[in-house]
Amino acid sequence: MMVDKHTVRENAEKRVKELKGYYRHIFIFIVVNGFLYLLKTGVLNSLLPETFPKESYYYDWINANILIWAVILVVHTLILQRHKLTFFKKWEERQIQKYMDEDRGKVDKYK
User: Fold this and answer.
1) What is the DSSP letter of 57?
2) Whether residue 89 sits in one domain with residue 76
3) 48 lies in the same domain as 92
4) Which Pfam families match (predicted)?
5) 109 to each of 85, 95, 105, how far by Cα in Å?
6) CA spacing 20 to 30 A to 105: which of 15, 55, 90, 94?
7) CB count, 10 Å around CB of 2?
8) First vs last Cα of the chain: how many Å apart?
9) How many other β-carbons are positioned within 10 Å of the β-carbon of residue 33?
10) Which residues contact 82 (CB under 8 A, 6 or more apart)?
11) 21, 65: one domain
């Protein structure tokens, strides 16, 4: 099979772009959720204006936000690592082979 250098470069550039997006996602996750966590724990209270709500119950949603975003980050990680996760591809190939064998058996049965 002949692989053209242009295609190889395009694929490599696509992977690098995906990786940059992933690293950006991690950075934003850490910055935003770090800030929210510091806000929730009261570490930033001295820096906030007087009118800003400082009661801890006001920030109960932050834990759910971190958890949901972490799940999304895990999914992003799995998508990025899809080339290394061969289990799914091998499973797919086994299923195709199984159905081909079944169909072949049905055809041979009626010959």
Assistant:
1) G
2) no
3) no
4) 2TM
5) 38, 21, 6
6) 90
7) 4
8) 37
9) 15
10) 88
11) yes
